[in-house]
Write a sequence for this structure.
């Protein structure tokens, strides 16, 4: 898993009815885009994440 600052980290809900948790990666702490990542979530909470199998990275669109 690789990410850059500005990408979205999406933690999918693990049980029925649980919503996905979406945050913006504000710092990549691993080597060459690897975890852990510092993430700012939609509710303003910020934390360090090492994504698991229920997580995806949505890469931001680059302007050309």
């Amino acid at each position: 898993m690789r990410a850059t600052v500005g990408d979205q980290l999406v933690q999918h809900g693990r049980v029925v009815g649980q919503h996905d948790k979406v945050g913006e990666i504000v710092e990549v702490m691993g080597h060459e885009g690897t975890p852990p990542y510092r993430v700012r979530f939609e509710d303003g909470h910020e934390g360090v994440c090492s994504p698991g199998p229920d997580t995806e990275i949505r890469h931001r669109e680059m302007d050309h």
About this structure: The CA atoms of residues 2 and 29 lie 11 Å apart. The beta strands are 8-11, 21-28, 37-41, 46-49, 55-58.
